[in-house]
Amino acid sequence: MVKATLVDKNGLRKGAWSKEEDDKLRVYVQKYGHWNWRQLPRFAGLSRCGKSCRLRWMNYLRPDVKRGNFSDEEDNLIIQMHEELGNKWSIIAGKLPGRTDNEIKNHWHTNLSKRVKQSQSVSSELVNKEQSSETSESEDSQAEKSETESVSVNTPSEPDRHPKIVENIPSPQEISCSELSSMNNDYVSGMNGAADSFSPMEIFQDSGFWNQPFIADNNDSQDGYHSLLFTEEVYMPSYPFNYDDDSMNWIQQMMQELQDSY
DNA sequence: AAGGTGGGCAACCGCAATAGT
DNA sequence: AACTATTGCGGTTGCCCACCT
């Protein structure tokens, strides 16, 4: 199920994620957001490339990721949207809260595509019957109707044939992982705006970031940076997505708490 | 019991899009 | 306008496990 972990020429780990790595990434992102995926692993104490961290977070560690079997409703929606959009997994994921594009893509390839193929073959059989049949017209139309009812959803078509879904999504309450990502980025960039262009790193520096009571875990540190493993006391499971005055207060409060605890 | 095979899924890779300079 | 950095997306790979022979 998981790829064996190995180390590439740059000393970066690849393959399966360990629980320790998951914990480091989860704690770091939940606390500071992902202000820069490329730089993040260094500060989180991870010997991973940023891309790998992003993927792990998006597909597995995000708190709102829904795991488990797909419901019939979800299956039908995926089939319907795939019929209309093609392999636009991220857009489809936007209609299925808690599901990731990767998960939907895998589910499609392993389950739904087969189901659609079966439906297609049933459909073509019906069409063949229809063409060769010498039965009455009324019977034909009935068969046509039943075909439409049973397999229309599963019949593939050109992606551009039904642009309506693209127009309709994303709805405000249904947010894809990529949109969530944007929200997080907005959170950070918004902080910049709200605080008159200070960078996340400046937050850390200005607030005594490097002196904060994190456990410096240099075991995995490849480049001399202090990795950050947070203590239970300062771990905070969530942060506000909107960066208004309350959020700035929250940040200031957080920083104050860190300084106090030091 | 042992080996083969295919399914399921996490993770990687390459490319395109976007943002920043 | 051109270049670079970063992110996001979709295709693909490869590992593990369950099932089959």
Automatic annotation (TrEMBL):
<protein>
    <recommendedName>
        <fullName>MYB family protein</fullName>
    </recommendedName>
</protein>
<feature type="domain" description="Myb-like">
    <location>
        <begin position="62"/>
        <end position="112"/>
    </location>
</feature>
<dbReference type="Pfam" id="PF00249">
    <property type="entry name" value="Myb_DNA-binding"/>
</dbReference>
<feature type="domain" description="Myb-like">
    <location>
        <begin position="9"/>
        <end position="61"/>
    </location>
</feature>
<dbReference type="InterPro" id="IPR001005">
    <property type="entry name" value="SANT/Myb"/>
</dbReference>
<dbReference type="InterPro" id="IPR015495">
    <property type="entry name" value="Myb_TF_plants"/>
</dbReference>
<keyword id="KW-0677">Repeat</keyword>
<dbReference type="InterPro" id="IPR017930">
    <property type="entry name" value="Myb_dom"/>
</dbReference>
<dbReference type="GO" id="GO:0003677">
    <property type="term" value="F:DNA binding"/>
</dbReference>
<keyword id="KW-0238">DNA-binding</keyword>
<feature type="domain" description="HTH myb-type">
    <location>
        <begin position="9"/>
        <end position="61"/>
    </location>
</feature>
<dbReference type="InterPro" id="IPR009057">
    <property type="entry name" value="Homeodomain-like_sf"/>
</dbReference>
<keyword id="KW-0539">Nucleus</keyword>
<dbReference type="GO" id="GO:0005634">
    <property type="term" value="C:nucleus"/>
</dbReference>
<feature type="domain" description="HTH myb-type">
    <location>
        <begin position="62"/>
        <end position="116"/>
    </location>
</feature>
<feature type="region of interest" description="Disordered">
    <location>
        <begin position="109"/>
        <end position="168"/>
    </location>
</feature>
